[in-house]
Design brief:
This protein is mainly alpha-helical. Helices cover 70% and strands 6% of the residues. The protein has 23 helices and four strands. A four-stranded mixed beta sheet has the order 2-1-3-4, sandwiched between helices. Strand 3 and strand 4 form a beta hairpin. It starts with a helix and ends with a helix.
Length: 443
């Protein structure tokens, strides 16, 4: 997990601590999606669809802090047909794919014809959800059929509002809108590009790591002091999602050219962290293409960089990250609350924990892919270091697997037993199975 995502997670968790619970809120409708569409069409309302998964922490935060808010409930119950969709269950999988949901939570405003009108991604507080509700209603009122935009394009392509609407409508209809997006951005001044609606439009429509849209997002994350926090977070998330999608496509298609494009984009957007991120990309690609020599080279380069970080280095980075979290959270968080005190230890060690996780992941990659004891011995050192930083159950499991492969079966059983004892309920079955195999003498 890169530090932007860790920072985003901790920020949203931190803000959650100061939220107030309420017994009122949005009344979500039950039934099949088609019945919800029919209801929205009959009442001339937009559907507000919360797309979630059962494992998504920020999704639960929305339920607890945002959807339960009294003002949100009054507004949404009156103006929208509210509906919840589990993206990993039943028809939810097909519907989530139709609306190109690739992150959770995603909140979709959809008209009675099934057209996507407005999208919101990630945890937001009640006031932000209310602002987005107004945007969705305004978009619905101004929506025109794609044929109207096509007919008026030649005469109106110099009009900012027209082009904004054209880009949005092309997206709704599932049409390629790269040319129109670039033309729209060409109409804007640097100041106009720095606004939340424009950055949101780019995030929702950009498909490639190049062109004016990418340059805009890259500029935002390169000059965070110039833009609002909302714009910076929006651009940062958009770039992460775009790069993640590009990486997955490169792995699936084994497309070296696409990987090279991703690497160049990362150099432009990730600053000091670009080197480690690029090594990680190269490692994943080498594993996907079966190039174990390249995978070994990249893994060992990344692990070498991480193993150089001593406790003093990590403590300094932890403190810097913690201060950044507090600064950006501002007055929204009560640092004297009991909830804050529970979260504080994790926030104070975010970089250390991230380093431990990466070292464990590298070690586990050798468990999965390498067959040579020399490789397992190197991985054992990375695994041991991860345990020095965070004696997590999954890290113990990695260490035990490596010990077993190196013939240290008695020690492996001892460590796997510790992993089992420390594990979460959903992990216990797998760890028990591994322990039983170790006791039988064969993994």
């Amino acid at each position: 997990m890169n530090r932007f995502l860790i920072f985003l997670f901790l920020m949203t968790a931190l803000i959650q601590l100061n939220a107030q619970e309420s017994t009122s809120g949005i009344a979500f409708q039950k039934g099949e999606f088609q019945s919800i569409l029919d209801k929205a069409k009959a009442e001339n309302k937009l559907i507000f669809m919360d797309v979630y998964t059962t494992w998504c922490g920020p999704c639960k935060m929305l339920d607890r802090n945002t959807f339960s808010d009294a003002e949100v409930g009054n507004t949404f119950n009156a103006q929208f047909v509210a509906y919840k969709l589990d993206a990993e269950k039943g028809e939810g999988m097909e519907i989530a794919a139709k609306y190109e949901v690739d992150a959770y939570p995603s909140m979709l405003f959809i008209n009675g014809n099934g057209d996507l009108v407005h999208r919101v991604v990630g945890y937001i507080q009640p006031d932000e959800l209310l602002k987005n509700a107004k945007k969705a209603v305004l978009k619905k009122a101004n929506m025109k059929p794609l044929s109207w935009f096509t007919e008026n394009y030649a005469a109106k392509k110099g009009d900012q509002d027209f082009m904004f609407g054209y880009v949005s409508q092309l997206k709704i209809e599932g049409k390629n809108n790269t040319q129109q997006l670039n033309e729209y951005l060409g109409l804007l001044s640097p100041t106009e590009k720095a606004t939340e609606p424009v950055v949101t439009l780019v995030v929702e429509n950009l498909e490639k790591l190049e062109g004016p849209g990418f340059d805009l997002l890259a500029n935002v994350v390169q000059h965070t002091d110039t833009y609002s926090e909302e714009v910076v977070n929006k651009a940062g998330y958009g770039l992460w999602a775009l790069k993640n999608a590009a990486m997955q496509q490169a792995l699936e298609t084994k497309d070296r050219a696409l990987l090279d494009t991703l690497i160049q984009a990362t150099k432009k957007t990730d600053g000091a962290e670009a080197t480690d991120q690029i090594v990680n990309y190269e490692l994943q690609f080498a594993k996907a293409t079966g190039d174990l020599n390249a995978a070994r080279k990249m893994t060992e380069q990344l692990s070498e960089n991480l193993m150089k970080l001593n406790k003093a280095d990590l403590a300094k980075k932890d403190q810097e990250q913690y201060q950044a979290i507090l600064k950006n959270a501002g007055e929204e968080v009560d640092t004297t609350s009991a909830d804050f005190k529970v979260m504080e230890p994790m926030m104070k060690k975010s970089v250390t924990n991230s380093t431990a996780m990466t070292l464990n992941n590298l070690a586990w990659s050798y468990v999965e892919t390498m067959k040579d004891k020399a490789d397992w011995s190197k991985a054992l050192a990375w695994s041991a270091r991860s345990l020095e930083l965070n004696r997590d159950a999954s890290y113990l499991d990695t260490y035990a697997n490596l010990l077993f492969r190196l013939g240290k079966k008695k020690e492996a059983i001892k460590i796997e037993t510790e992993a089992l004892n420390k594990s979460e309920p959903q992990q216990k079955e797998d760890y028990q199975a591994t322990l039983d195999k170790m006791k039988r003498g064969k993994l």
